[in-house]
From TrEMBL:
GO biological process: response to stress
Name of this protein: HTH marR-type domain-containing protein
HTH marR-type domain ranges (all copies): 28-127
GO molecular function annotation: DNA-binding transcription factor activity
Length: 148
């Protein structure tokens, strides 16, 4: 029998926070510049060649203002920079600085370690099955039913 107390989006959110908290704690313990969860999420959705603030906001599921604030905080820390977008004179691209690249690589190593720790706790087969499920093509979200 399935428990109805927590829905799947809540459980996925908890899983994301588990990784996020582990990442931020490991970065802090390693002496890295402290960042907020929103700033860490921004790093995760940033393309190597640069991304506009509007696109970052869309990928993060936040307002443009929230993404802009996170970008400015990371620019002030020297982890991101704003450069002209060659495709549009009106837009700017956000990209990692060399220090931001170093931090991004460090975060990748930490996330691999966290995944290994998770596999030790719940089993490698379970983690592999979870990964395969999340990597599967789910298709577009279903359309809402017509009003009755």
């Amino acid at each position: 029998m399935r428990s109805t107390s927590r829905n799947l989006p809540q459980l996925l959110g908890d899983a994301r926070r588990w990784f996020e908290e582990g990442l931020l704690a490991a970065l802090q313990a390693g002496g890295a510049t402290p960042v907020s969860p929103t700033q860490a999420q921004l790093f995760a959705v940033l393309d190597d060649q640069g991304t506009t603030v509007s696109e970052l906001a869309r990928r993060m599921g936040v307002t443009r203002q929230t993404a802009h604030q996170a970008v400015h905080g990371l620019v002030a820390l020297g982890l991101l920079e704003q450069v002209p977008d060659p495709a549009s004179a009106r837009q700017r691209l956000i990209r990692r600085t060399p220090e931001g690249d170093r931090a991004h690589r460090q975060a990748g190593v930490i996330l691999e370690r966290l995944e290994e720790q998770l596999a030790e706790r719940i089993g490698r087969e379970t983690v592999d099955a979870l990964r395969a499920t999340l990597e599967a093509q789910w298709g577009r979200p279903p359309s809402p039913p017509p009003p009755t």
